[in-house]
Amino acid sequence: MFHPGAIEVTRLAHYTGHRDCVYALARFPQSPFVYSASGDGSVARWDLREPLLDGVINARVSSSVYALCPLPGTDILLIAENFSGLHAVDMKLKKESASVKFTESAIFDVQHSAAGTHIYVACGDGQLHLIESLALRRLQSIQLGKDSIRCLALDASGGLLAAGSSDGFIRVLSAQSLKVLYEFRAHDNSVFAVRFLPNGLLVSGSRDAKLKTWDPAKGFSPVQTVPAHLYAINSLAVLPASAQRQALLLSAGMDKTIKVWDADTLRLLKVIDYARHGGHTASVNRVCAIQHPDFPDTFISCSDDRTVSVWRLKEPA
Predict the structure, then answer these.
(1) Helix %, strand %, coil % for the chain, to 5?
(2) What 8-state DSSP symbol labels residue 292?
(3) Which residues pair with residue 289 across a beta bridge?
(4) pTM attached to this predicted model
């Protein structure tokens, strides 16, 4: 088990090549490739097996990209082009298979359903869209308040969809009907990240720099509040438990740090920064777990400093 201060951090790779801030990360299960997207509209592929090689620009769109979504069981990567819509690109063939335009606002998050047949799209105009994955056919749209929807998360069953918004509210919907089941003021201002934890709780991160957990079994009543970063929390990711360690929560902050937490207790285990670990020199915009057998305890991060880093955690020998 990892204990506070006892985690060693190794930076396996530090990728450069984007010409603007990097906002989005994605990876396909069982693949050694990871993808990143930036404000310059480029989508780059990086090979975890070749940490010294430059990335390959696999796609480019006309506007900035804040969200990517790989479709399970396919080679299709969904690219969310701000102020336009979605592009489905076969990353093996490097060919666009479909596209759809449905918004004139920013697209902040895209998540696929448990089966991968549908996707949920969170937009800056407060609209949530349900779209058929492969054909990119819009099935339903609903308005969740006047403010931007900044983040989405599905629970382990795939039945609940949590949406965090710039008004500080979290709304929990039926993933099938998009009916709002719960609605509550979660933070003082924008909710930038939500994730369901392995223990079933919902965790949220906000512009107010706090982590909070909520209990679905009790109507999403509050459980815990932790002052977590100096500035806004931009992204959350979970490293599931293994035989060697407990489940871990990763948080990425505007304060240029990545923090590692015990996912059950929200006990701080490690702070990854530039001074001690050669971390990012600007706001960390996204963290993403790798979950690949050849890369255990590994995750990736991206930043306003226009770079992508690959990290591995381990206990001292």
Answers:
(1) 0, 55, 45
(2) B
(3) 299
(4) 0.95
